[in-house]
Every structure is written in structure tokens, then in C-alpha cells.
Amino acid sequence: MKRKVLIVGGVAGGASAAARLRRLDEDAHIVLFERDPYISFANCGLPYYIGDTIKERSKLIVQTPEAMRQRFNIDVRTGNEVLSLDPAARTLRVRSIERGEYEESYDSVILSPGAKPVRPALPGIDHPQIFTLRNIPDTDRIKEQVTEAGRRSAVVIGGGFIGVEMAENLKEIGLEVTLIEAGPQILAPFDIEMANRLAKEMEQHGVRLRLGDSVASFEDADGAVKVLLASGAEIQADIVILSIGVAPDTGFLKSSGIALGSKGHILVNAHMETSLDNVYAVGDAVETTDFISGTPAAVPLAGPANKQGRIAADNVCGLATAYDGAQGTSIIKVFGLTGAATGHNEKTLQRLGTPYHAIFVHPSSHATYYPGASPITIKLLFSPDGAVLGAQAVGQSGVDKRLDVLASAIRFKGSVADLTELELTYAPPYSSAKDPVNMAGYAAENVLTGKTHVFLPRELEDRVQNNTLLVDVRTATEHARGHIPGSINIPVDELRDRLNELDADKEIWLYCQVGLRGYTAARILNQNGFRTRNLTGGYVTYQMSTYKPAQK
Predict the structure, then answer these.
(1) How much helix, strand and coil, in percent to the nearest 5, is found in the chain?
(2) Is the pTM value of this prediction over 0.90?
(3) 464 falls in which pLDDT band (50, 70, 90)?
(4) What angle, 0 to 180 degrees and rounded to 10, lies between the N-to-C axes of helices 192-204 and 538-546?
(5) Considering 24, 42, 44, 524, which one is annotated as catalytic?
(6) Beta carbons of 319 and 24 less than 8 angstroms apart
(7) pLDDT tens column, 325-372
(8) What is the pLDDT of residue 552?
(9) Residues 6+ apart with CB under 8 A from 548
(10) What CATH fold (topology level) applies to the domain 4-116+247-316?
(11) How many helices (DSSP H) and strands (DSSP E) are in the chain?
């Protein structure tokens, strides 16, 4: 007897599930419902088409209904919206332009409805020049506005990945762009120091930032939009892009009895099974588990959605494969910089009450004697027993491959000691004999073995009360160009001859430019009877931590 499988939604999770199902079962009757005309498109590429980096619209279409039918023999039904699921009758209620409302029976269902942009009930939110970006039709509407309609200014509301990408791409095609973010930083998966470096890059390329301010309402201004902020400020723009987050598109399931999380996500187990028999769910609409902590997590990323689609199809066909959880590995281009993150950030670790250490290193992307080397900032978070908990990196080049290595280390339960031992590719155009990943491991290992005690920039606020002395061990020229207030300058090369200038009763807090000379100074002082702490990542990290946007 042929198995009948209904798939609700395409794109990453649903389309992957459909293709995997067919490869596993040539005889199955597979029906894919998609309410839009497009079943599989490059949603991560949409901002870059708007910004003219991707020139041809057709490049966004990953798979057409016709090609899917021909290659995989799948009954693809675009323009068909699933209205409800009846687990007792094992049917879906569907509305089609051509057929009206009808029911479709199933043996198994895979739900992949995705997530929809949040559109808050603010006064004026229905202005015709306020847009969200979810799919190809949304992209077409925005593209028309910024090209044919000749719009010259835009406000992007929300500093997440899509908001930042939209701000960059709109700026690249010549618009005046303001990005508004209610939180204290852009890009919440990053910690403040790393987010600040990316924010500075945006400002340097002409994007105006307003952080810590939220939208109160919108008003029409002769066809344009006046954005009124909670602070009392007003900004006028030709178009507004809402990018303040997404919510699972699961409203059609509320009468089904399926178990949903507090924010409407479909609850699934490791086999992507829901609380309903023979009903599976994948993608942005599901709540799975955090790979590191095992706590509930909803991670709306394409990579996890594809993996989950494959796993759901396996389980429909009797293969007991499992999803081990998401670690939130992500990457973003911000003009000339790349930012990437994996695992937990400090905010998450603090919320979970997880003990951890943090270090920064600023190695070069490849051997400095080979042309084109540029610094990479790596932040590594690790447990007191050395387990790698999270990592972030920002730089001009080489960021992606370093974060991929660190993401792999987390996936395979690696430690900072493992990072020091990794044998990674080296030739002068690509890396150094000690790769930046190795360098992060060395710095972390020094902390764990007690060879150095470090502090973070935010701890400087407590320094005075702790009876400490802050010493800048860079050169006098470097100190004169800029330094941390309250510090004295004793260059590391003069330190041995000037020990008498230091008070042995005080803990000596050291810093240099990137942390290495500070570590050397700490080793000298420790072996001469002084208690020390070194600013991890040095003055560069301090500058990243204290950066404030102009708030224009």
C-alpha cells in the first residue's frame, strides 16, 4: 500500500523533506502545499537582490514546481493554503483558488509553515510605504519602490540579521538609511564588544544608527512616512522596512490540539515528531533544543531547517535518525567586515547561570609578511573545565573558516586544549603557523592553568574600589595616542628596571594593544611577587566595548 505524505510549506525544510522522501520511497504519494507561487527560493539572498549584488531575479529561485514534479514525481500545489489539521480524521483542510476549500487525507504530515515577520499594532502601521521582507512577492514590492519609484530614503526598524542586511543593501544602492533598534546593540547573538565593531562599520559607511530607541507610531507625510520614536525624535523616510523579528506561522494549528510552546512554536522531539501521531514539524516554526545546554530553543536558520527536513523524512520512512539540537551558528556581511557566531554568548550563559571564562585575541588573518593580512577579533567563551561554550569573530577576511572550526569543536564536545592541538592548513597567503584558532586556544589555556588572570573592560568600573593600579605597558607614543583613563605608562621593555615604581600591596591591572605584551608583563611581575590581571584583548577590546554610535 502506498504511503501518502502531505507536506505543508516548502522553502528549506519542506522542500528538503520532499526530496529526501522521494529518494527513500519511490512509491510514496507526496503532496507539497504552498500558498505562494514559489516552493523553494533563496530567502537569505533576498536583501542582496534588492541591493543589486544579485542581478538576476531568477537566481533566487532554487527549485520550481515544474522541476520538482518532473524530477521527484511530487504533487506540488502552489496557491493552496492549509487552513487546519484534523488528527482524528487524519485530514488537512485546504483552500485553493482553483478548487475552493477541500480536504486531503494523510498517512503522515510534515509541517514546515515557517515564520512570519512581526508587525506590531502601532498607530499608522498600515501605511502603504511600510514593508516586511519574507518572500519573493515582498522582495518584488520593495525592489520596485527603490528602483522604479525612485525612493531616496529608508528607515529600517530592527537591528537583527535581516535588518542589518537590508540597511547595508539599501545604502549600497544610494538611499539614505537610518536603522532603529530598541535594544542597546545591533545583532543580538553577538556580545556588545563584537556588535559595536560591526555598528561602527555601518556608521563609517553612512548608515545612521539609533540604538536604545523604539517606534511609538507612524504618520503619513505627503506619501512618505514619518516615524515617531519613544524618545520624541522624528525621522521621515520614503519607505520603512519592518525587521523586528519573526513569529512562528502556526495559527492554523490551534484547533488541532498539537502542543505549542509559549510563543507558538511547534514542540517536537529529536525525531521531529510532534505531540500528534504521524505528524512531524521542521524549520522556523519549531522549538527544538539547544545543543549545548539541552534547554528549549527556537533557531530560525536555513541550515537547521534543511537538516530537520531530512530527519523528518527519515523518520516517516522508518529510519530513526535524530536531531541533536541547534547551536545557532550564523554569519553576516556588514560592508567590509564579516561577523560570525556560534554557541552561547555571555548573555545566554548568564541567563542560564553557567560558569564561564571569556578571552579575546586579535591575530592576523594570515602571515603578516604576506600582503593583505588583516586582524581578526575572536572572542572565546569556555567553561572552568575547558569545554568550548561559544565563539564570535569579526574581521575583513578569514572569519568564516575560523568560526566553522570553532563550531565543529563545539559539536564534537571539544575543549580549549583541543584548539591548541588542531593541525590546520598553513601557507602564508592563508594563515600562520599558529592559526588564529590555535591562538585562541593558547590564550584560554593560559587562563585555565593559572598562568594569567584576565579582566574584561566592563570590570574597570570596579577597579578603584579593589585597590588596584592600572598600567599601560605599550610604548609612550601609543599611550599618548589614546589610553584608558587613570592608567600609568610603563612600557613592557622597561618593566624589569622599573619594578620599584609599583606598589606590591596593590593588584596590578595591565593592558597593551591586543593583550600579548600585557601577558608578557604579567609573567614578569608574577615571578617578581606581584599580583596581576591582564585586560584580555587589550586596548582594542576596550575601544570596541566603549564605542557609542552618534545617534543621529
Answers:
(1) 30, 30, 40
(2) yes
(3) low
(4) 70
(5) 44
(6) yes
(7) 999 999 999 999 999 999 999 999 999 999 999 999 999 999 999 999
(8) 59
(9) none
(10) FAD/NAD(P)-binding domain (3.50.50)
(11) 14, 33
44 catalytically annotated: yes
Cell 537591528 sits on residue = 159
Mean local confidence (pLDDT), 413-418: 98
Q: Pick left, alpha or beta for residue 278 (phi over 0 → left; psi -120 to 50 → alpha; otherwise beta).
A: left
Say if domain 130-244 classifies as CATH 3.40.190.10.
Answer: no
* Residue 1 cell numbers, joined: 500500500
Cell numbers representing residue 367 in the block: 602571515
Residue 436's pLDDT is 98
Domain 454-546 classification at class level: alpha beta
Task: Please report, for the chain, the start and end positions of each structural domain, with discontinuous segments joined by +.
Answer: 4-116+247-316, 130-244, 336-448, 454-546
pLDDT digits (tens, 9 = 90+) for 199-250: 999 999 999 999 999 999 999 999 999 999 999 999 999 999 999 999 999 9
Q: What is the mean pLDDT of residues 493-506?
A: 96
User: CB neighbours (10 Å) of residue 212?
Assistant: 14
Q: Among all chains, which residue has been given the C-alpha cell 539540537?
A: 325
Question: Looking at domain 336-448, which of 1.10.580.10, 3.50.50.60, 3.30.200.20, 3.40.50.300 is its CATH number?
Answer: 3.50.50.60
Say which amino acid occupies 245. Answer: G
- Same-fold call for 4-116+247-316 versus 130-244: yes
Q: Are 6 and 278 in contact (CB under 8 A)?
A: no
Q: Which of 68, 48, 53, 218 is nearest to 130 (CA)?
A: 218
Furthest C-alpha separation in the chain: 90
